[in-house]
Structure formats: structure tokens, C-alpha cells
Amino acid sequence: MKFELLSLTNVGQYITYLKKALSEEPDMMWAEYVDENEIMERINDPFYKNTPSILAFDGTDVVGRIEYHFYGCLQDGYRMAYVDWVYVLPEYRHNGIAQQLFKEFEKECKAKNIDQYFLIRATNENANKFYHSFENVDLDDEPVLRKTIREK
Q1: What are the tens digits of pLDDT across the range 88-102?
Q2: pTM of the model
């Protein structure tokens, strides 16, 4: 298993992975379709440069990813990361890939002097088992406010 940041050189493999994930588990995806042109535009858009993804490869195939972004509070200098997305293709689950993706992500956090990261976690049986295996974490059920500013 190798891990790489999403880039122009591996975006084709990433798109193939997204299409497979969407076809296998459409109910687990936020998107209803994979638009290759839009993804290619986003990969070059400076706005998305602050939203990296680490890809997990089995040979030349992407089989999982973690997407995140860093941000901070100017007032107290606290540095945080938010995990936007973690997904491993079903046939590759329970092989430590998601755990390794988090380890790779935590390396990036340490390199950026991140104080804390968080995510809104899924609560299905597999996700609960996975997140309960983490050490030194809080698994609170906190309310989240979400407001859509712009409809797509």
C-alpha cells in the first residue's frame, strides 16, 4: 500500500475510484454523479489547494482517501484541521487502510503544528467500531448546525 497526495498526476486514478465508490455505495456518497471536467477544474483552482486529499493505492488503483483542511483562530493561535471525508472501497475495508490514512494525515498535522483535528463521524456499526479503536479521542454526540448558502 502506498499513499500520495491527490495531484494532477494521479487525478485520473482518483476519478476512477470515485466512480467505483459511487456505483458500489451510492447511499454513502454525498455526490450523485462524478463530473470529470469539474474535478479537473477544481484540481487547478487555487481555492481547493487548501483541501488536500491523501490517496491510498493498491498497485496503481486508488482504494481509499482522506480529505481535510487546515484552519486557525487568529485570536489565540489555535491550529486545527477538519476531516471532510474518509472512505475506503468495501472490498478493501478491515485491512487497516483507513487507520493508515489517518496516520498519514496526522503526519501532515504534525508538520503543520496542528493542535487538534475533528470530524463529523458516521454512526453506522462499522464506523462506530472504527472510531472507538482510536486512542486519546473524545467521541461526543454534539449538535451541528449546517446552513446551505448556495444551492448547486
Answers
A1: 999 999 999 999 999
A2: 0.86
